[in-house]
Design goal:
It contains 3 helices and 15 strands. The strands form 4 sheets. Strands 1, 2, 9, 10, 11, 13 and 14 form a 7-stranded antiparallel beta sheet that branches. A 3-stranded antiparallel beta sheet has the order 3-4-5, sandwiched between helices. The chain has a 3-stranded antiparallel beta sheet with strand order 6-8-12, with no helix packed on it. Strand 10 and strand 11 form a beta hairpin. The longest helix has 16 residues. It is elongated, with a radius of gyration of 26 Å.
Length: 277
């Protein structure tokens, strides 16, 4: 064992490095080191998008402090087996965030490795804090009235919960913006069927013809909800958000991130149309 690093610290370093080597993004949202190594607070600014509120600065910030014991071990030379598959030279930092998150990270030295760490950190931070609302469901006939078997129901999402949203995370000299754009809504109608609409749908207006189908997002029930819990079908709407990102500053680049989903649900009573002979 080399002087300046304990067995426990070596194990911690090995575990950390192994995780980073296999899945670099696993803790990327916790990384944010200035070039002088003294630490940086990451602030996230969000844009509520169409119908949303003004941009606000998120309350989460993180500070970073070099871990003297582990870095002394690096300077003394940790056996390569202790570093597992990590080949870069760098620095260990303890981090503490205002939301209580804390831990240990390893940041490789020098460009381009450090710049890549910054970009990944900021992108993940912006992605994490995207202000994506659950869809606000609209239907016609309205929820206080029965839907009717064999007559069209209109489906839509309120404008306040549709439209692009963004979040920007930054440290001195570099910022990354994640932008979420809604692309579709999957309606699960409670009777075993789904409807996928490529937009928010069209709200029903009092002047629209009675019994007319929605021009772009609707459904017609073929059986009543009798026998269902509460005599209602459980209907859910899931908005799919496409995520892109751009980074500007020390490096200008862009990319995509996994789609995000947001879901809401309501209960709808569906009744048979009564006829008189």
């Amino acid at each position: 064992m080399r002087k300046g690093i304990t067995p426990a610290a070596t194990a911690t370093a090995a575990t950390l490095v192994a995780v980073l080597a296999v899945a670099p993004a696993a803790r990327a949202d916790d990384i944010g080191i200035t070039e002088d190594g003294r630490g940086a607070a990451i602030q996230v600014k969000t844009n509520g998008g169409v119908g949303g509120g003004a941009g606000t600065v998120g309350g989460r910030s993180c500070s970073y402090t070099p871990n003297a014991e582990l870095n002394a071990g690096l300077a003394g030379g940790i056996p390569r087996s202790g570093l597992v598959r990590w080949a870069a030279v760098g620095t260990f930092f303890d981090f503490a965030c205002s939301d209580g998150d804390a831990g240990l990270i390893f940041v490789p030295d020098g460009p381009p490795a450090r710049t890549q760490v910054y970009v990944g950190a900021l992108v993940q931070q912006a992605y994490r804090y995207l202000p994506l609302p659950a869809p606000r469901i609209g239907v016609n006939p309205p929820t206080g009235r029965d839907q009717l078997v064999n007559l069209p129901s209109w489906l839509w999402i309120a404008p306040q919960t549709w439209g692009a949203r963004s979040a920007t995370a930054s440290v001195p000299g570099l910022s990354a913006t994640a932008t979420a754009t809604p692309v579709s809504v999957t309606w699960t109608m409670g009777d075993g069927h789904q409807v996928v609409c490529r937009g928010p749908g069209t709200p029903y207006r009092p002047g629209d013809p009675p019994g007319a189908a929605s021009p772009d997002c609707g459904y017609t029930y073929r059986s009543s909800s009798a026998g269902q819990p509460g005599e209602r079908y459980r209907v859910s709407a899931t908005t799919r958000w496409r995520i892109t990102w751009t980074a500007t500053g020390v490096i200008n680049t862009s990319g995509t991130l996994p789609d995000l989903l947001r879901t809401s649900s309501i209960g709808l009573r569906v009744a048979e149309v009564q006829t008189i002979n």
